């Protein structure tokens, strides 16, 4: 996690870095800092445990080179002392780091023994002191950074400022970093989102490359030597700026955007489902190549993946299983496996490490991401952009919906040419897909009137249960996750049938129990069991508290959406947000969390 930005230009470098950091704050907001140098050699240095906004820059900002950081704490408490940029013993060098230095303790001991004064608790500080030593003999800042990085184990994206020369160097290893040129200066940042308001192109800093930013522009070093500049990539139009809305928080606007997001996905992908067109466009091998599908992801993305996996297994009888990316070190991988790796950011370290551990043969990886410029997208065999547009709120909402719908389109397209899928069922699934945007829109409208009452009723509830069956379980899981991360209250999800095997003991007078209704009549039994113990049931089924009239009333489960009642997630997102706001929480930046989790 953490966001890094650096810039060199004629003047205003600190202000540009501050603006970039504001756009990176979703990556972590425990503390922030900027170090900058002016053309006359003056140095400005500020750190804060407030947000980036509280970092002051001069109105007529004279700085020509600046680096900055917004932190998500791993090593060391949330204090100004631990905020980046971190300084060397002389005050000449500053660095900002994202990642984890695994051998920091050993290096720290060595550095202290050699006389260095380390003033923070963070692992990153060793880098600036290694750089200080390396610069004594190195021919340049780039060479010194390269030498310092050779001492590190772990993952890093580092920017270093030499306040003597005004030069900036940057390098990366297992942590994302990009470089870009704009009219007002050159940039390095953790994510192109930091500068999409200023640039249309960017270049990826590959592992162990070093780049130098100075008044001449950006120069590239590969393996410690001058190297050709890599090809530029275009910033996709959809990633350029977030959509404004009626709420003052991003999350509210992102929830509201969901019908439009759903519509644009269905409009662009649904016409390419039939006859395997979309599948073929992704250059995926024919579906018959695969004997199984494995879903890989974390948190909300894993939930979305489970819904997509259900399409393969339910409609195609192709076995699918979901793996928590951080827990798949011992997974047994078999040939003829399609891995679908879901990650809205495409930078989640747990997913990338799981990816690296995959066997080189017999496995095809499809990345489903909201960031087609990400590390995951660059490494996968095939990539599909889930087309949600920029999502700023840390809690995933529209990206979840977009991942489900995009994944469903891909799965239906793959299965469309398979004899496993009867034409009648395929046609019904296509109809259900076309119906999704309207169902989501109606859920927003109907629950807009219901959610405020629920918020008042449950304002004091210490814990919540979310139940579902079949395709509804993933939405119950997602509802519980949203509630936890936004309200800081305990929330648990269970398949409804499991209730009587233990979790029913949690239910007492007034316990809130949200039930995601997928139309399975056995849910009525679970609801009766809850109500008999005084629990307060909220039946969530898209348009209102009663079973949705919009769903096909059929006893043939294969004609219901194979991805379950997706519209049910909308009221669960709305309720979590409303309760969090009622409790006075920042819904865009829940405590302790970050949007891009680039540490394992
Ligand atoms: O970027 P990713 O989709 O890979 O992130 C995975 C999780 O960290 C993420 O979904 C997290 O659970 C969300 N913040 C939940 O709202």
Strand content: 15-25%
Identify the CATH homologous superfamily of the largest domain.
Glucose-6-phosphate isomerase like protein, domain 1
Q: Please compute the radius of gyration using only Cα atoms.
A: 25 Å
Helix content: 25-40%
Strand order of the largest sheet: 3-2-4-1-10-9-11-15
**Oligomeric state as shown:** single chain
**Shape call:** globular
Number of helices: 15
Distance between the termini: 10 Å
How many DSSP E strands?
24
Structural class: alpha/beta
Per CATH, the class of the largest domain reads Alpha Beta
**Please, what is the average pLDDT?**
92
Structure description:
It is built from 15 helices and 24 strands. With 600 residues, the chain is α/β, with parallel strands linked by helices. The relative contact order is 0.10. The strands form 4 sheets. The protein has an 8-stranded antiparallel β-sheet, covered by helices on one side. Strands 5-6-7-8-12-13-14 form a 7-stranded antiparallel β-sheet, with helices on one face. A 5-stranded parallel β-sheet has the order 17-16-18-19-20, with helices on both faces.
